[in-house]
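Cross-posting from the modeling subforum.

Setting up a comparison between two proteins and wanted a second pair of eyes on the formatting. Protein 1 (sequence, then structure tokens):
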Amino acid sequence: MTASLTFRLSVHGLAALLLGASLAGCGGLSGSVSRDTFKPFVPEVVQGNFVSNEQRQALRPGMARAQVRDILGTPLIASLFHANRWDYAFSIQRQGVPAQNFRLTVYFKGDVLEQVDSDVLPSESDFAGRLVRPQSVGKLPPLQASEEDLKKFSPASNPTRTEMPTAPAALTRSYPPLEPAIR
């Protein structure tokens, strides 16, 4: 009876010791593992037609629908109930970059452009600059070599490389047949 009781106590003691060591080990991870270590992947979501400020400025009242379509592309929303209105919407969501949303609406009277209503649209170069994720670049070493550094690599100062390298042996031009020989 005492042997089984001692064995039980030692198993329980060993389990408690193992649990304590595990918890102590996990406590040390809080300093090395940050909240950003395990982030879920967020796919890039692009919806709609991007309309730049340059395209917006090319629109003039009195243009035909075909001319507007040539400049802006096919509208995202062209409703049967609002045949005199085309809506262009654009949104992009990327991980590490703030979401961007832009909207432009053109109104027609008959087949002629009458009015343009839009958000403040970025130019093409501004929009391309917004797509870049901010990156932290550490201190870069200077890309300069002193005269002493250059002398280390000159052929005159390196006696082991005084001889000219020989040309590689000519490669054979025979290739194995692509198909087996007919027997």
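Protein 2 (same layout):
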Amino acid sequence: MNPRERWLAVLNGRRPDRTPCDYWGTAEITDRLKKDLGCADERALWERLGIDKCIYLSPCHPRSPEKTWHLQSHFAVWHVETQAIGYGENLGEYQEDAFHPLAEAGTVADIEAFDWPDAADFDIAALRREAQKWAGYPILGASSEPFYLYCRLRGMERAMEDMVQRPEMAEAVLERIFRFDYELIRRVLTEAGDLVDLIYVAEDLGTQQSLLLSPATIRQRLLPRMKRIVDLVHSCGKFVFHHDDGAIRKILPDLVATGIDLLNPIQWRCRGMEREALARDFGPQVVFHGGIDNQQTLPFGRAEEVRAEVRDNLRLLAGGRGYIVAPCHNLQANTPTENVLALYEAVREFG
């Protein structure tokens, strides 16, 4: 089986020749791995490690200089300004918000007057060309992450206050984001659906201990629109990849009820996210993706501990609808190469 066949087998409830695996990593560690393993490019790295890499793509916009598949991080399109913030001792950097274009908006009219991007301006033909380069790999073709984007447009503190104290503002912003997301995903599925397997329908609702917002607020403000996008994706015969960080156990039944197909990242050391309980309660309904701890095991554990975690996850998570082995978020630059090798060698051995 090739990577795409493995993913589709799991997503369709069939047994692949082995458990598939994916890769998430920062640019810094990806570049280091290519150097350490003598790989000329990322495709060679996936082949060297035996990774069933999901290829994360998006349509592009003529105003966007950002090179990312995550549409909400095409910051120029949204008039969000960022600055590079380094971490560690020159380990790498992340782009952090520096200007929120809707921070001073005080009325619904201010929201409506914002220069919202038009889904018609995105280039689906470019997405098709890029997807055609990756025959044999699963393709993810667009993304929706409304509250993540809301926090960049308004600033996180104002966004959270809006959700409770200024519901008219929250509804105005979320409705405009939804209209954009729905129309662009509809275009992707209509014009490139023959090449796309998954759509990313996500949020970042959890901390290490609990939710950022109350379950009631999430149910009222976020999930109805999410359900409409999930239904759109399913109506075109495609699958929904849902990412939601942290301790989200209280809202998981509601998320699963929207119809998501794949649940990522399975941060099982967060409160309430124990693997046994997740497998028991949601294993028959969703494919688990992730679960190899990138905060403790991968950067600070020994190679044999990484192997043991892969083995444990396969035992605990693969018995329901299925499991795709991957780091539970981006591998960080302080992760030893030997631990990355141990991760993917263990998939081949135990999966």
